[in-house]
Specification:
The complex is a heterodimer of chains A (105) and B (309).
Chain A: H1 5-8, H2 15-25, H3 31-40, H4 47-61, H5 70-75, H6 82-94
Helix pairs in contact in A: 4-6
Chain B: H1 19-23, H2 43-56, H3 67-71, H4 85-95, H5 102-106, H6 110-121, H7 126-129, H8 136-145, H9 154-158, E1 176-180, H10 183-194, H11 197-203, E2 214-219, H12 220-224, E3 232-237, H13 244-259, E4 271-273, E5 281-288, E6 295-303
Antiparallel strand pairs in B: 1-3, 2-5, 3-4, 5-6
Helix pairs in contact in B: 2-8, 4-6, 6-10
Classes of the chains: A mainly alpha (105), B alpha+beta (309).
């Protein structure tokens, strides 16, 4: 069985968030990859990022909704907690834009 | 930035091997033998191999490579530069001093050697950090202390500085470090993985400089046959009763305190051998190639079965 959450649960909750975060933020991704994600976050032609942003909002609103341990296992962040990682990610990608709004504008 | 770009001309490949540093990894496994005076291995390597045998069930063995199959490998299918058998030999002769991990390729079959050299000429680092040229000790220390096997300066390696990135950036490693212990097995898994539909789906994506295709896994049994797991070893960060998040944070804080010469209240990081790779997967990570105009496999390494790592 795959250790990758999105391979085990391709339609599972937060599958896009976890896949994208692992792809661009795990130890296997370098700074260039992270910079690519920052550019992608500003592009409107990349559908994956719309889903990603919506799931990131949901996760920030209530991190307990995330499948247990999957984000940590996939991303291997050193931020100390899921909340700290998600907040850093939002800040790096969307700056001061509030995440706690009803829907993406 | 490619794997070749961050290297120094005069590498120091000695490995820190003090009793204090070894004590940080954990207690020796039962049955550890004293090092014979004529054993060429370091104390640290004997310790790591002994633990891997006792706790990971590993035994050194040689992979029976499908040489004719490897001979048909086309590097360009993997986004790598084409290379002949003779050119591979010349490449090793030219770079063996500054790229010591090529020693593993030097002793491999000509067909496997050509694959490993093609990888080295690309931008990937799987063969540098996860292949037979990496020792058990180096793999153990990577998981425990984030020491990069690709870092040739021993002082920088001890400080956790990445060996392939510019500007002395810190090396990152998750809570597990693994390797394929035989160069022929590594080359075979890579060559077969390149043609696997899941890997091809990522390699064949239209190139976009902002997009990283990502990660996929393939069962080890599909790449190295039924006993392929016996050519894989790994070391995993011990949680010490904490969550994985807290254990990694503790390791990061401990390393930062050590680098700054400060005391730290938390426990020293410890690692243990991965108990088995039977039922495990090979992870392929696809990203931008060295020249930034296409995709290649930037790394490949084994993962233990899920769950139960």
């Amino acid at each position: 069985m795959s250790p990758l959450y999105w391979e085990r649960h391709p339609e599972g909750p937060f599958a896009t968030l976890i896949r994208v975060a692992a792809t661009y933020c795990s130890p296997d991704a370098d700074e260039e990859a992270y910079e690519g994600l920052q550019r992608l976050a500003k592009r409107e032609d990349y559908e994956d990022m719309q889903v990603f942003k919506a799931e990131l909002r949901e996760a920030l609103r209530d991190p307990s909704q995330l499948p247990d341990g999957e984000l940590s296992e996939s991303v291997q962040y050193d931020d100390g907690s899921t909340e700290a990682f998600l907040r850093r990610l939002w800040r790096d990608l969307y700056g001061d834009e509030p995440f706690d709004t009803p829907r993406d504008q | 930035m490619g794997a070749r770009d961050g290297l120094q001309d005069e590498p120091d490949i000695s490995v820190p091997d003090t009793p204090r540093q070894l004590a940080l990894a954990d207690e020796p496994a039962d049955g550890a033998q004293p090092v014979s005076p004529d054993d060429p291995r370091s104390m640290g390597e004997v310790y790591a191999e002994t633990r891997q045998r006792a706790d990971g069930g590993w035994e050194p063995r040689q992979f029976d490579a499908p040489r004719s199959e490897l001979g048909r490998f086309n590097p360009e299918r993997a986004g790598l530069p084409p290379i002949s058998l003779d050119a591979a030999d010349e490449y090793i002769a030219q770079h063996r001093t500054t790229r010591p991990w090529l020693a593993a390729a030097e002793t491999a079959s000509p067909e496997a050697r050509r694959i490993l050299v093609a990888l080295d000429a690309g931008g990937g680092h799987g063969h540098i950090r996860h292949e037979g040229g990496v020792t058990e000790e180096a793999s153990m220390r990577r998981a425990a202390y984030r020491e990069d096997p690709a870092q040739l300066d021993s002082e920088k390696r001890t400080r956790g500085i990445d060996g392939l990135k510019p500007d002395d950036r810190p090396h990152r490693c998750g809570d597990i470090a693994t390797r394929v212990t035989d160069s022929e097995a590594f080359a075979t898994a890579f060559a077969r993985g390149v043609e696997h539909p899941k890997v091809r789906a990522l390699l064949d994506l239209p190139f976009d400089p902002d997009v990283r295709p990502g990660e996929v896994t393939v069962p080890i049994t599909e790449l190295l046959d039924a006993d392929g797991h016996q050519f894989c070893t790994g070391w995993q960060l011990e949680l010490g009763g904490e969550t994985p998040d807290a254990a990694r944070q503790n390791r990061a804080d401990w390393l930062q305190a050590r680098a700054g010469g400060r005391d730290f209240d938390g426990p020293e990081p410890k690692v243990r051998p991965v108990s088995t790779f039977e039922g495990g997967e090979m992870l392929f990570v696809v990203g931008r190639n060295r020249t930034g105009d296409g995709y290649e496999i930037v790394t490949m390494y084994p993962r233990p079965p899920w769950p139960g790592q």
